[in-house]
What we know:
- By secondary structure, the chain is α+β, with helices and mostly antiparallel strands.
- The protein has a domain at about 425-565: Sulfite Reductase Hemoprotein, domain 1.
- Helices cover about 30% and strands about 20% of the residues.
- The chain contains 18 helices and 24 strands.
- Strands 3-4-7-6-15 form a five-stranded antiparallel β-sheet.
- Strand 16 and strand 17 (about 370-375) form a beta hairpin.
- Helix 15 runs parallel beside helix 16.
- The longest helix is centred in the N-terminal third of the chain and has 18 residues, at about 165-180.
- It is globular and about 65 Å long.
- The two termini are about 25 Å apart.
- Iron/sulfur cluster (SF4) binds near residues 434, 435 and 483.
Amino acid sequence: MTTDNNNLVVQGKLADNERLKGESNFLRGTIADDLKDDLTGSFVGDNFQLIRFHGMYQQDDRDVRAERAKQKLEPLQNVMLRARLPGGIIKPAQWLSIDKFADEKTLYGSIRLTTRQTFQFHGVLKPNIKLMHQTLNQVGIDSIATAGDVNRNVLCTSNPIESVIHQQAYEWAVKISEHLLPKTRAYAEIWLDGEKKETTDHEPILGSNYLPRKFKTTVVIPPLNDIDVHANDLNFVAIAQDGKLVGFNVLVGGGLAMTHGDQATFPRKADDFGFIGVEDTLAVAEAVVTTQRDWGNRVDRKNAKTKYTLERVGVETFKREVEKRSGVTFGESHPYEFTERGDRIGWVEGIDGKHHLTLFIENGRILDYPGKPLKTGCAEIAKIHQGDFRLTANQNLIVAGVSAENKAKIEDIARSHGLMVDDLSLQRQDSMACVALPTCPLAMAEAERYLPEAVTQLEGLLAKHEIAQKSIIYRVTGCPNGCGRSMLAEIGLVGKGPGKYNLHLGGNRQGTRIPKMYKENIGEQQIMDELDVLIGLWAKDGQSAESFGDFVIRTGVIAEVVNSAEDFYA
Ligand code: SRM
Ligand code: SF4
């Protein structure tokens, strides 16, 4: 791989994804033909990748793969769908519709809340895919660009208390999402039987080859960093004065993925470009996207995200280009502070007098479990709720905008369906895992199915050292892609192989520090043994109110990651 004189565009043989995007006729490929082929449950050739731009991934259940192979059956191919819900807001009527679809037409019967404020259906068989899109379309939901090399679902802090700021920030999340969407009519044509156009589509922002890699955007309202800005390519940090949104500090180039054994890949925090007025938001969003479109690496997909473009061309060069393209000069950043990340589980009252109930959903998996019919409970709430639901980036669900009259009724339903329990520890609230097995094809170790027991063990350690009232931001991902955002946790586990993880330490509670590897490829028992010792030290020697992540850095248990390009692996 070489770069041209200015280091701006990487030269070399383009990744095959570039060919397939370019030849796709604006994301149509031959998906419509595959859909008619009922001999296989699969999408073949380029279509396997192209359906991602329409919000779907082809999957099969890895638990039964070997058994099916023994019986000479092809894997039970199905798709996972990820909806587009900017800011995670969904209405009760929409909820009831997705609840019904999950029940009747998916293999697992669950609704899975994700770390990016939306929901996924797992296990949709080919004959039901079109029905799924049409069902969603009828209630005003689509899945355009929730996957693939495009700008994904735009996140917005789920701040139910300051309703005015939240409303304004949320509106920007929606506008940014709409502005950066692919303009091709492929989605409407294929899934909604939309009118076929003779004219060639035009993608003024994304270009006919779309972006070099996935791209993620947030709108965040300090002091809450619930959406984890440093996991994202582009962040708008809301700056409010006198209860009114006046503009944003713009942070560019965060991202968490890496590849085991490849030190050219690493998690990276976003850089602060400076302040812009609200009126410049779309121009700046577009300029960041087009700069990454034109300068991002289209040769090596492992080095293609914005974070690597910034490392290669330099933050100042990238920023100047954004200023040139947008016609906006960044001002000095306004001061702000992140103080926390988690959701406030339980009831809070907003400044508008409305009540908001955040329900803790372990792993975001909404399903009727024996003795805990969570899914039925959510549907029962949706039947009487007059406000909206907000999906959080911590995989929880907020019943937002509840009137005083409805409060007791909603709480009754939540309690009787296991959605509200009194013995939920802070530690469980502060823990999160990605999906991993059995549906994720990239999983190297368990995550979602390991988390509940792993948290119980961690709770045991905190109790043993007499600090059961404390908690640690604890996250597990089944592989180094980092979907559960372990690379912003105080304790982060990264799957390496069955039952084996790399143990990272030293993130902070605000989500502004990347944890470094402490032990490589260790088993579940060894993880708990290591944590037993460290939590014991923290209980004994930790300063008052010092978090676990700060403690391990201060006492030299692990070195601080300051600039991950230089010191993440050092
Ligand atoms: Fe992710 C790929 C699940 C958030 C980084 N992610 C996948 C796939 C689709 C596997 C695949 O490519 O076949 C996983 C599907 C599992 C399944 O069965 O559902 C998957 N990612 C998820 C979700 C559902 C995890 C969850 O438990 O909630 C999250 C869905 C978000 C959404 O609604 O859009 C999810 N993924 C993330 C995050 C966290 C975030 O964005 O806040 C990251 C790290 C941040 C980042 O992008 O740097 C993340 N996912 C990845 C990557 C690595 C990207 C890279 O930079 O190399 C992959 C693999 C890839 O793209 O090649 C990936
Ligand atoms: Fe799958 Fe890895 Fe993402 Fe977990 S982190 S969902 S195992 S891709």
